[in-house]
Amino acid sequence: MTVDEPPLSQAEITAIAARIDRPIVLVGLMGVGKSSVGRRLATLLNLPFTDADDAIEEAAQMTISEIFAAHGEQDFRDGERRVIARLMEEDRGVIATGGGAFVNDETRALILDKGIAVWLDADLDTLVERVGRKDNRPLLRDGNPRDILARLKADREPAYAQAPIHVISVPGPHQRTINALLKAIDTWL
């Protein structure tokens, strides 16, 4: 989508929303905008929004960082899969997953089977700039964030590429990304 492309009309958005019969599940690396884009997308579609990481923290009564520190990544991924499965059964809303969720074979199969999987992607410079705004990313604590993100991007892209919808999250207003996402969902439906 180009910058000059007009946003979708409310009638077009309503028509797309009426065709959505399962959760829209946003996947991709940390920093691509799954939560911020997801919240706005859900509002536009008049659907509920859930950040899977928030739901995991609520269920565990611990932060993601505390879960990683106390139990390790594998236990976190097991709990993450259970929470995402529950969220997908509850509603047809918009779900933002953690960056590693879709890499897990079982979680990915569940999302592909029961949801509309959308891979939000971004270039490395955009990711580095966005994740630098917060210090709550356990995977970025042990090294240079740019190097870690580059490695994660290369390692995880084969899994993310299995999502049937791929949208680039661009710097600037989220509305540009949301318009591209809505058009991609409309085409996929």
Automatic annotation (TrEMBL):
Could you say which residues bind Mg(2+) here? 35
| Keyword Zinc-finger among UniProt keywords | no
Q: Which reaction does it catalyse?
A: shikimate + ATP = 3-phosphoshikimate + ADP + H(+)
Keywords assigned by UniProt? Amino-acid biosynthesis, Aromatic amino acid biosynthesis, ATP-binding, Cytoplasm, Kinase, Magnesium, Metal-binding, Nucleotide-binding, Transferase
EC number assigned by the record: 2.7.1.71
What is a single molecular function from GO for this protein? Answer: ATP binding
Q: Which locations, inside or outside the cell, does it occupy?
A: Cytoplasm
The cofactor named in the record is: Mg(2+)
The annotated pathway is: Metabolic intermediate biosynthesis; chorismate biosynthesis; chorismate from D-erythrose 4-phosphate and phosphoenolpyruvate: step 5/7
Recorded family membership: Belongs to the shikimate kinase family.
Q: What is the name of the protein in this document?
A: Shikimate kinase
The protein's organism comes out as Caenibius tardaugens NBRC 16725
